[in-house]
Amino acid sequence: MKVTTIEMRGLLTGKCVPRDMKVNEDLAQYFVRKFEDHAAEVARLNEQVRALAAENADLKESRSVLAENSLETCNAIFSAGYHNADIQRGLMQSTGNGNKYPNPIKTLVDEALRPLETPATDAILNEVRAQAIEGFMAWSDSHIEEGDEHEGALREVSKACKAYAARIRKGYLP
Length: 174
Prior knowledge:
mainly alpha
């Protein structure tokens, strides 16, 4: 729903009607329906973002498994006689590109150990973490009773949660 200022004025003054407005629907009902549609779309997109973030977190985990297994494989190859000319020639041919990687084992290990950078995923995960903390903070705040002997301490915990959520959004994880 992309509406210009002129179109919005026309809607609000009754000079025009949206083309997707239903019969017997007033403007307030129309806007509520549109906002609900957009809220549903935002929820769907948020779910997709969460799924992508989870997949990328798994991808990062797989990189560490790759690194561990690459190092173990290299140790096995070296102990089996990597310096043997026939084995070295076989490894070179297995790259499929001649001398592009003159030391395929080193290339494999280096690539496996290279950190996988996913700043967008990290930001999404930090946002999810911060929202969880804020959710706890909202729940906790809703249970604070005026005059309770622990009211002051609970309000301090709430402030600390808010500050901690802000730190997590900035990427400062414990």
